[in-house]
Amino acid sequence: MTIDDLTRLDSTRIFVNGAWVAPSGGEALPVEDPSTGRIIGRIGRGGLADVDAAVEAAAAALEGEWGRLTATERGRILMRMSALVTARAEDLAMIETLDVGKPLNQSRRDSVALARYLEFYAGAADKLTGTTIPYQEGFTAYTLREPHGVCGIIIPWNYPMQILGRAVAAALAAGNAVVLKPAEDASLSSLVFASIAAEAGLPAGALNVVTGLGAEVGAALAGHRGVQHLSFTGSVATGMRIQEAAARNVVPVTLELGGKSPHIVFDDADLDLAMPVLVGACMQNAGQTCSAASRVLVQRGVYEEVRRRMAEIYRGLVVGPACDSHDLGPIVSRRQRQSVQGFIDLGRRELTLAAEGTLHPEAPPEGHYVLPTLFSEVPPDHALAREEIFGPVQVLMAFEDEAEALRLANGTDYGLVAGVWTRDGARQLRMARKLHSGQVFINNYGAGGGVELPFGGVGRSGHGREKGFEALYGFTRVKTVTVHHG
Ligand code: ADP
């Protein structure tokens, strides 16, 4: 797949009721390659009428062929989708790299993850069961797990394939119908995914994809009376709007809103194991990862060594065009680049710069590049220690003991992921219990990896859990049945 192939893709249509249709307004939005600043294609600008049609198609699918399938049959379709994603993994990876600016080696991992989500939920579809409940004499009581119905899924631009995979595969496995709204900066892989779903035999209307702007398609979907569940991954500000819209229709909502996740490195940590992970867990996807380990808290005894070794790694990091798989690609858009650079400039004015990476000499000047930047001795109340930057920026802070480590780690509004590096088993268990976080990684940092592992946050990182079996519970509701038989 080359840029020329991509521009020939007719990506201006949206996918509604199993068909590719022109958006009602007839307008299109440009698709930019963040590595070069070039416009490489167009996507359709959907609107209210398109969301209406998609929700209607999804509701009809639940009443029709899709709703009549058994869980096993749903699983088989998902398995075919997984095989087709695997067969087209390289195309999907290239599309993502051109659309999002993600280094190709990282996009390849995303297409593998998408296939894996489909495989996992394909196998899980017919293993989701209710329970029987011991109750009064003369009664049989049990629960049924039912799909919510029409699910609105709104995804961001940073990991489109992974995030659509974890949400759409789980929603479909549980028997829901989906209206997917990809981010305007990264819609191409969702469109290819829709064509794969059709090829795999997913009945019309079970999955609909409406591209367009957040304030138009996203807002229409979030507020739609025909939607029974909302799932959103993105910024806190937009997440709040989604939850408000959900409240007005009294529908459940799953929110995954990012974080300010810490690595906590104790004096007894295996630094050889930790060092590459400390940096990599923030640099992947140029720091545009909700679970990025953007704070590194280090116990005083090894602080100086960790600072020195991290700085050395930073000086070796190269930023460049995504197709060439450098350590880091560009930031997704001009707007995001400005925001990240603003944080870096603030840090350079007010903090101690410990190290930065380098820009590849062939990086086009129109690309949205920023240098990976490490700041040390950062006060915990500084903006760079508290706010989500969503770029390749890490802050280093020292702590004296376990109590202070916990205070710092738990001291932001977020709580998505935490990494703890120590050989002390009792401390590992204490920290895992006391950290305010949806996931804790001891002597590793999974950064949201692992399809099987429930994922989600506390505080402003959101609520609800995706991935693993927990996602299936989230995409279903329980109905209690009692039979009085005397
Ligand atoms: P960012 O500002 O980084 O693009 P957002 O959280 O705004 O992050 O975007 C994540 C997703 O939410 C995208 O698909 C975007 O189109 C969508 N979105 C943005 N604004 C709204 C909104 N008001 N209502 C619903 N969806 C929205």
From TrEMBL:
Top-level taxon in the UniProt lineage: Bacteria
Active site residues according to the UniProt entry: 256
Alphabetical list of Gene3D superfamilies matching this protein: Aldehyde Dehydrogenase, Chain A, domain 1 (3.40.605.10), Aldehyde Dehydrogenase, Chain A, domain 2 (3.40.309.10)
Protein family per UniProt: Belongs to the aldehyde dehydrogenase family.
Gene Ontology molecular functions: oxidoreductase activity, acting on the aldehyde or oxo group of donors, NAD or NADP as acceptor
Ranges of residues in domain Aldehyde dehydrogenase: 20-481
Pfam family of the protein (one): Aldedh
SUPFAM superfamilies xref list: ALDH-like (SSF53720)
Species for this entry: Cereibacter changlensis
Protein name: Aldehyde dehydrogenase (NAD+)
Listed InterPro entries: Ald_DH/histidinol_DH (IPR016161), Ald_DH_C (IPR016163), Ald_DH_CS_GLU (IPR029510), Ald_DH_N (IPR016162), Aldehyde_DH_dom (IPR015590)
Keywords of the record: Oxidoreductase
